Each structure stands twice: as structure tokens, then as C-alpha cells.
Amino acid sequence: EVGDFVPEEMHERKNSDGMTPHELFTKNHEKLKEEAEVSMKGTATSCTVVGALIVTIMFAAAFTIPGGNNGNTGYPMFLAKKLFLVFIISDTLSLVSSTTSVILFLGILTSRYAENDFLKNLPTKMMIGLFTLFLSIGTMMIAFSSALIIMLNEEYSWAIVPCIFVASIPVASFIWLQFPLLIEILWSTYGPGIFDKKAKPWIKL
Questions:
Q1: Helices vs. strands in the chain: H and E counts, helices first
Q2: What is the 8-class DSSP label of residue 81?
Q3: pLDDT higher for 82 or 200?
Q4: Whole-angstrom distance, CA of residue 156 vs CA of residue 164
Q5: What is the 3-state secondary structure (H, E, C) of 173-186?
């Protein structure tokens, strides 16, 4: 961003140590780059584990549907219920979004971590990965709630709300902890820069 305010002919001008501005910047920020790599790998690893667990759970849920199958026809017992359609759609969305997040986080873990990758490539992957992970968690809770309502029906309707509330606590806690990271990455990557874009260059020719 600083380069936008400096004349192009000064971009390759060397200082007294024979280093260009880019080489000097890279040298002075080598430790910061290493810290960013460790932080991003740690976040990606944790989110990959969570995403993989959701993939496993939602894949299994698709074949262990609430109520089971009719022994004569083989169709699901609650196929006629609208909530069953909600369960199937939310289960599918959760499976697809969690798989997408795992692929993106694996892409982060296997990245070269070059200097330019930290500008757009890695932050964008992290943002999309976190968003799809949040989406998979939300749709997983919808699938869980739908299955719970179908199974308990009217006889145990009093237990539906407490069960959903208790099950939502760890999910809400994870989102509450990770959502600020998503906003911070989005703001730092695509938000306004540290300098006013309309400012004039600091050297006039």
C-alpha cells in the first residue's frame, strides 16, 4: 500500500546497504511472517478437525434417518412430514458446506506461505472456510432440531426446547469465539487501508 504513494522509479532504488525497499521490508517483517504462518496453520488445523467431525456426523445421519425405514416399502417412515424434508435439506447443506470448509482449510495447510499469499489468497481461503464452517454448524443444528421434533412428537413436546437449547450452547460458543476472527480478516483484507486512498503522493516530481 505504501508503494502507491511512492514514484515507481523509487521502487527499485537501493539504500546504503544495497537493498531495495521490498527486500528491506521482507527482511524486517520475516518474524511477523513466521508468526502469521503459525497462527494460520493452528486455526486451519482446529477448523479442519471440526469440519471433519461434522462431515462424519452428517454423512451418518443421512443413512440413519429419524424413525427408520418402512419394512415393506423401504421408504422412510416420516417421508410425508414436512419436517422430514427440512431434515434432509439441512443435512445435505451441512454435509456439503462442511466438506467445502475442510477442503479450503487443507488448502491453507498445504500452501507455500509465500509473502504475496498473505495479501489475498490465504485470507480469502480462511474467510470462505470459516463462513462455510459456520453454515455447516447452523444447518447441522437445524437438522438436529427437525429430527428431535419428529421423534418426540406431541407426547414429549415439553422436552424439545430444553434439548435444543442445551445442544446449541457448544455450537454458539464456537461461533462466538471464531466469528470475530472472520470479521477481522474481512476488514483487514478488503476494508479501507491504513492510508487515505485519495491522499496525494508524498513526493512531487
A1: 5, 0
A2: S
A3: 82
A4: 13
A5: HHHHHHHHHHHHHH
